[in-house]
Write a structure and sequence with these properties.
Blueprint (H helix, E strand, L loop, with lengths): L2 E6 L14 E5 L5 E2 L12 E12 L16 E2 L14 E2 L2 H26 L28 E3 L2 E7 L14 E10 L5 E12 L11 E3 L8 E13 L16 H4 L1 H15 L3 E8 H14 L2 E7 L3 E2 L3 E2 L1 E8 L3 E10 H12 L5 H8 L4 E9 L14 E8 L7 H21 L4 E6 L7 H8 L29 E3 L13 H4 L13 E2 L4 E2 L2 E6 L3 E7 L25 E8 L5
Parallel strand pairs: 12-13, 20-21
Antiparallel strand pairs: 1-2, 2-3, 4-8, 4-9, 5-6, 7-8, 9-10, 11-26, 12-27, 13-17, 14-17, 15-16, 18-19, 19-20, 21-25, 22-25, 23-24, 26-27
Amino acid sequence: MLAVVRLHLPSDIPIVGIELTPYVLIRRLDSTVTADDIPESSPVDGHFLRYKWYRVQSDKNVAVCSIHPSEPAKLQCLACLKPNIPVAKSYHCTQKCFSDAWPHHRTIHERAANAFNGNQKGGFGHFNNSVSSANLTIGYTPPMYPAGIKHGDETWFEVGRSKTYTPTADDIGHVLKFECSIASAVTKLRVGQPNTLLTNRVITAPSPTPRQLIHVDGTGHLDLDRRGSFTVMSYKVLSETSASNDLYNYCPPWALSWPYRRQNLLREIVGYRADIICLQEVQNDHYDDFFSPELEKHGYYGIFKRKTTEVPGGKTIDGCATFYRRDKFAHVKKYEVEFNKAAHSLAEAVIPTTQKKIALNRLVKDNVALIVVLEMKVNNQIVDNLAKKQLICVANTHVHVQQDLKDVKLWQVHTLLKGLEKIAASADIPIMVCGDFNSVPGSAPHELLAVGKVDPSHHDLTVDPLNILHPHNKLVHQLPLVSAYTAFARTVGVAFEQHKRRLDNRTNEPLFTSITRDFVGTLDYIFYSADSLIVASLLELLDEESLRKDTALPSPGWSSDHIALLVEFRCQNKSWH
């Protein structure tokens, strides 16, 4: 007969809207074990698994902290007791908890007030509480599940009969109980006692303060083609394989779990409504099973470039994914840059035979870049007039992470730029270079991108054991690239002072795009062709205060160890062919 060996949840703190799928380990009659499901339609050894979920409602109402859900609430914000604010968000465990959360908590009040006023005026984007007569059913509809079962001072309400359950708003503040039973394929009756586990109380997902798109000054004198306005986002999303509890032990396990993070990432990405989305560190199975189908629902088409080294099972670890809105762009061409191939070509051309193995061990690091050429649509249509066709080129890359391999980072960036120069030479086309470059402002890779060359005396050039960076005067490119976020430094006015304070005074780059316990700095950039594009708006940068003083990324509110960058570009008025 079957026997349940182990029940386990990836996270014992359930979140509204985030599905829960327990890990169930079963021992068969022949003593082999499996984690596969055994449904009634495919019994094993004459038995199958039956699942039930219960909401456990205690007669003793216990409120929990909205910030620290494992702590009981000791104070409540009375200002939250108004329309559109869930009561669960009003509870806090200590005065310090409430004070630390106040900058974000205040925005909850403001959003609720705006929503209430909008509803009063019939505003856009709010739920309609009226019920259509088409949804009314005449007659009695039996309940889906039986009435609650009384157990002492608790009542168990059955809420699900499948292995996976997604908590609802009705579950907030309650414990969930999962029950796994072995049943006979013949009698359909349960055999033996059920195996159960209990979760912590269900909470709502934290909602961080929304980041605003900031219009930047200094563009009024340019001749702009309004049809050529579009937004580009770059975001390293942190793959599941990289998000280990050991590395990010400051992040609650439930907030680090992939089922939670993927929904939080999707909510954030979709919320920005970018026309072009460049994602890095996208796990290839997550691209196929999640990002591609989910973003397709929102009108995007995706292109994915996997890393080249394979892991057991024949699957690559991650890669770069570029999505574009189907109503705004048409795909023209793509180029894939495999730095491993470039490394082998370099070794064949310039590395002595006796050093090739050493050279390849240093250069072959599996990183890739994806270059996509898109044609802009007008009113969701391709432009027939060849003289008015507008093409853009978007490069998306993830440069090697290891900090001591400065020569490899610079060589990868230089290789990418040489490829982009060839594309630029074949067509008069604006270029954007997006990604996680794993290089701080002022480093040699950043200097090459931003200035077009590297100072021969740059300290990074001292790391060149393979002599691949010589002569130093070859480390140049002719692309007119500018880092988009330096546009904040060129703004004028008091309104922009808070944004300028979030820039590095020396390079005018953001103070950070990644913040963990061990690192605070900028690694992500969006570069653009300054001769054909201008920056119209920028997604505001975060500061450490907005992330709370006692936290780092990822966190319950922000589900990657990097932040997203987003730029609105406008095309200068010219014809592209």
